[in-house]
Amino acid sequence: MNSPYSPPTRRVFPYARRKLAGPVLSPWRGGRGEASGRPPVRLTATLCRAEDEFAELAEEWDGLRARNRSATPFLSHAWLASWWRAYGRRGRLRVVLVRENGRLVAAAPLMLVHRPLPALVTLGGQISDYQDVLLDDSCPRAADALARALYAASRTAVVDLREVRPGGAAERLYAAWPGVRHRLTDSVCLELPGVPMDEMLQRLAPASAKRTRRKLRRIDELGIEAHDVTGDRVPESVSTMLRLHEHQWRGRGVTPEHVRPRFGAHLVGAVEQLVASGDAAVTEYRLGGRVAACDVALVSADLVCGYLYGADPALRDQRVDIATMLLRHDAHFASATGRGTLSLLRGTEPYKLRWQPVTAANRRYLLARPQLAPALELLAAKAAAREAAARLVRERGAAARVRTLLDRAAALRPRT
Q: Looking at the record's lineage, which domain of life comes first (predicted)?
């Protein structure tokens, strides 16, 4: 099926792969070696700077991701490669790879930026709710080897790992880092257990649960049906979702990036591959034979992430609670597939908070060589100042809302 979101023209970068010098390239001497009859363990590290070389890593990359229990769907090769084609800049790719006797055991998908200071940042950018590195859980030397390789590759840049989910592989990298380091709190995500809707309703107060059951009955009475989308229908369905998303938010502050062609090209291309590999699910909600809503969920071993949806504004006129409709389907999907966590991703909107979710704050890890300690502290101070400013805005906004409510209450108070 043709999609209005055509992928960007492929840019072919000059082939560039560089071995990283340092102890990581030496045979590992700490094991039993020849006494056990096994060959010596040799760890090697390389720096991938070419798009075509990164593209060829797909099978090896996803094999490593499968051996990293904490890996989120935003670390899939399909997601990262598609993101790079849409958002990457020529000559900036820096992917650090570590192999043990030829097998990939660690990887850091990075790119070089120069503002405000030279830094290596993770691929995926602001449209990825989780970011991280990959470490083979069965290789105890992977974290230390990646730390040494990344130390060699970073040179005069600070390594800035943002939006790391609690328990992510970057925690082990941070612990093994041989230079200076700093840990910060990043965005807040909300999580629910991967249980059916009947159990989810038990999280609500009785009156709220009763209202929600009434909303679910309304959805069923209208005859809205959920249909899984697979195969060559995925691109068209994702394009429809993006169109509905723009329509529903028109005039109400749509996220600007969500309506840009590069985002559409990335999402259509990535999700088509992710659905084929079982790492994403696309669902259409049909009413009277037409698509009234559509959503994309990204999945990993123990995680379902409700990423983006679009809905016809006419559904609200029919008193359809769209968020509840989507949550029921995603909760059933998580439960049926044995995935223990349903992530509502970033943001603390009221429609999420009503379900009493668990708050999980992402982490930001800053890593650098000792001589770059001033640059690292500058980035940390800038992040702290930004958070303080955001907190002040939130507090002032809350205070203003309280004053408004008090003024309204005073206006309604009977005069004597």
A: Bacteria
Q: By CB neighbour count within 10 A (0-12 exposed, 13-18 middle, 19+ buried), where does 155 fall?
A: exposed
369 CA to centre of own chain = 28
Section 118-140 average pLDDT:
97
145 within domain boundaries: yes
The H or E element spanning position 148 is helix 142-154
pLDDT in tens, 380-402: 998 888 877 776 776 665 555 55
Six-digit token string for 410: 């005073």
Separation CA 201–CA 199 (nearest Å): 5
Residue 361 is encoded by which pair of tokens?
Answer: 């704050």
Helix orientation angle between 77-87 and 58-66, rounded to the nearest 10 degrees? 130
Query: How many structural domains compose the chain?
Result: 2
pLDDT at 208 over 50: yes
> Are 131 and 156 members of one domain?
yes
Distance of CA 92 to the CA centre of its chain: 21
